Amino acid sequence: MLKGISLSKGVAIGKVYLLDSSKFCILKQKLDAGKVDDEIKRFRQAIEKSKKQLQEIKQRASKVADKYAVILDTYTLLLEDEVIVNDTIENIKINKLNAEWALTETLGKFTKLFNNMNDDYLKGKQDDLDLVVHGIIRNLIGHSQEKLSEIDEPVILVSHTLSPSDTMAMPKNLVLGMATEVGGKTSHVAIFASALGTPLVSGVKDLTAKVNTGEQIIIDAIDGHVIINPSDEQLKHYRKKQDNYRSYEQKLLENIHQPAKTLDGTHVKLMANIESPDELKSLRKFGAEGIGLYRTEFLYLMSKTPPTENELYENFKKLAQGIEPLPVVIRTLDIGMDKQIEGIEGEPENNPALGLRGIRLSLSDPGVFIHQLKAILRASLYGDIRILYPMISSVEEFVEANELLQTAKDDLKKQQIPFKEDILVGAMVETPAAAICVEHLLEVADFISVGTNDLIQYLLAVDRTNESMASLYQPFHPAVLKTLKGIFKAGQDSGKEVSICGEMGGDPLATAVLLGLGNQGELSMEVHSIPKVKKIIRKISLEESKQIADHALSLTSTEKINSFILSEMQTRFPSDFDRDTTFEEKFLPVENQI
Ligand code: PEP
Ligand code: MG
Questions:
Q1: Cβ distance 270 to 291 under 8 Å?
Q2: In terms of CB atoms within 10 Å, which of 83, 141, 576, 578 comes out highest?
Q3: pTM higher than 0.70
Q4: Domain that holds residue 109
Q5: Can you give the CATH number for the domain in which 97 is found?
Q6: Residue 416 has pLDDT above 90, yes or no
Q7: Residue 59 maps to a domain
Q8: Atom in ligand 1 nearest the alpha carbon of residue 504
Q9: Residue 64 falls within a domain, yes or no?
Q10: What is the dihedral of CA 132, 138, 141, 143, to 10 degrees?
């Protein structure tokens, strides 16, 4: 049994589909000093895996032709070549580079060398080297989008990581569960898996080296376990656990037609975060009261060329018509950090989380931004559409974005294309700067939406996508609670709408605290969380929530706040927060459980 972290709850049982790649894009990444040894280990493991794969191919080949099997020995020798291996390891060590990039640089050096030779035999060796190096890189990356769309039976995806474009390319109905070696709680693969209700366990060390396509695997994304080639006993046990979890989720759906009102009558609007209009159907199923966050970057990830203004317009129009009269908040492109798009991204950056991200990129290259704004404006005639700017860190940025919005409006007027002139425009509050100056932002914005995923990352200086930092990524850190209280207070004073659209908004454990801190207007979350959050809201009063929040604020350590909130919620909602709610069959003797 391997241990990871559960990022989207549920249990999945099926056959492994290990993502492999023949075509790939390698990004240069700078490593933290503490990660260099792990990276060298990862490189060595990829070489070992390549050797094993060659061995298997050789065995199969020798049945066909001995001569061919001998050729494969050349490849094995190349894999053992000290010069190639040492050159790459040196590069990882000295320049703190990711293994894929360092190896590509080594390959580049050898290619130059081979090209300068006049010997045809040696030149031919270049092809062998290419083949071997690409084999190692395939093992390092562990996936390919091209292959993803070829999946034609139910599988469990196993990969080193999954990029947003991978998740877009996969046949969602055939992916029963996912397991990755890296990825944090608010990484995009986690958000995507939660939106689909697909179980996901991440942070499983060396997983891709331990499994092969076709092997049976269990993803226990309740307790964060992965079991490869389970025994019959284990299969029986986890099938039961899967059933138990499904019945629990089914039961929660019973409240979807009830309003999300506290015992003392405060109505909190529960909205959905979506990434594609295809999710409209599930919005109704889970009782969403509108779309609080439409992450438009996924539209750009689905095709090799950016969508045209017309394609964007059609997409937004379909959404607005599909959900009308309920509102849709369309967030403008938030590229950068873990969401890179070919052709739109800027220069490679050493620290992309603090670089040209979100609105900064839009302002520095307004072409794509104005395109998007015009499409949103045109679609605004078909429903209650609002605009949201991501990664705002100053009032000037918001004002500058609005000036470009005015340019978009002027263009449309010139073209005599109708749109809604008084469309509402909001700012995401997800940088400490925006949170601290939120009153000023509220003077210019029509509404604000708190992006806790990034806000926590930037407040606590903890990379949200790094699973090895997961223990430091603490939504109930005193700094986070104090900051949120300040934002909600400013929101109430301004009389403008404040919503939360980060993952914290969809965490039922946080529901009472957020209410008590002053978030009584709107929460936007992945749809599967709506019934869970609603259940809490309907069974608590504002007064009780305030008491919980006030006490949490009086505590000085995250650990104390975490255990206080957990014990409060366990006492009030034993069936939802009981530590023993692992959906295990209690009667199973412990030794038979795993
Ligand atoms: C956030 O940062 O909380 C947010 C909702 O945006 P994203 O997760 O897309 O960065
Ligand atoms: Mg964000």
A1: no
A2: 141
A3: yes
A4: 22-141
A5: 1.10.274.10
A6: yes
A7: yes
A8: 3
A9: yes
A10: 170
